[in-house]
Amino acid sequence: MTSIEEAIQFVKEHSKPLLKSIYKTVEKAGGYELFENVDSPINMPPFRQSAMDGYALNLHDNLTYQLIGEVKAGDVRQTILKPGEAVRIFTGAPVPNSSNAVVMQEKVIANGDNISIENKVEVNMNIRPLGEQVKKGEQALAKNTKLTPAAIGYLSSLGISKVNVFKKPSIALITTGNELVEAGSELTYGKIYESNSKMLLSALYSLKFYDVTIHKVEDDFEKTQSKLDTVINENDLVIITGGISVGDYDFVGKALNTLRITEHFYKVKQKPGKPLFFGTKQNTAVFALPGNPAAALTCFYVYVYITLQKMMNHQDIELPRVNATSISAFKKFGDRPQFLKAIHINGSVEILEGQSSAMQQTFALSNALVFMREEVTNIEIGDTVEVILLPV
């Protein structure tokens, strides 16, 4: 049986960066990373711009100026000021080329067509120069920059409508089991509502992976093999839940073997999630997760998360781990390392009740997993424990 450390290393070694690009409209590029440098097509700002509401001046030696008009944001007419003349101006408005300073309105006393300023004004005061942020032809954002809302706003302000970004993996989620029915359907005897696909879809969406399709397969060998063959050939990552154990109606393992998927490991010495499979076919990564929801989600965060980050060519590919003080006691049965659902707050962690691999309610309250290594059998209140912080 593969150890956790060996399994993680196999995932790291056999998960490859996609290094593909796709053009996205700026408004749909949030969360992506730039595939290439982006140069500015314009100066920003594209004109000398007032930094505040006040008065644009053509400086002279007197503190009194004649007011000859106003300039508001969006005006295109170029006002010409003689020395000693001023115009009322507003934040973001173009500063006339004949003006060499802007004084804030709080520093001005207005009297009809004349204004008086309190103190001498420095040249270029309160004027944002042409190209202050970035000049035309200069690099606006570098390759690998993650496009945050601020970055999207910045690119839009430069008039950029499309960007070339790293393509995210296409992902297929496959659920197996004749017992599964969709929410909203009648729950007849022997059936359960299917939840794994929604759970994993939500986990993927929270990590900004949106190219996801969902497939359901009955407990039938030919149908399982056919569906797997199709999705493996059409996607970068395939995640299967259920059907990977050794029961008479668990056909996933047999189908993967028939399809000649290269197996890197099957079964990991851990709890929950022992019946975990990881393999590859050419550039497609394949995970078969246990059917029990808590086990499936645990395996997603510990292993599948690494593959997703590797595919995006990231450097930080594992969820963060910290030490915390346990405010709960826990006794482990058996010798397998265990991932315990927990709540981590300000350096303390509470191990929750209900650690069964089928229990979703406890996981719904968790924001962390306590990792209990093989040699550890008990956790006492006050012990320092290793904690994996889950995405929120």
Automatic annotation (TrEMBL):
Keywords: Magnesium, Metal-binding, Molybdenum, Molybdenum cofactor biosynthesis, Transferase
SMART domains registered for this protein in UniProt: MoCF_biosynth
Cross-referenced Gene3D superfamilies: MoaB/Mog-like domain (3.40.980.10), MoeA, C-terminal, domain IV (2.40.340.10), Molybdopterin biosynthesis moea protein, domain 2 (3.90.105.10), Molybdopterin biosynthesis moea protein, domain 3 (2.170.190.11)
Domain MoaB/Mog: 172-310
Protein EC: 2.10.1.1
Reactions catalysed: adenylyl-molybdopterin + molybdate = Mo-molybdopterin + AMP + H(+)
Domain of life: Bacteria
Pathway named in the protein's UniProt entry: Cofactor biosynthesis; molybdopterin biosynthesis
Cofactor: Mg(2+)
Family to which this protein belongs: Belongs to the MoeA family.
Task performed by this protein: Catalyzes the insertion of molybdate into adenylated molybdopterin with the concomitant release of AMP.
Identification of the protein by name: Molybdopterin molybdenumtransferase
Organism of this sequence: Mariniflexile soesokkakense
Gene name linked to the record: glp
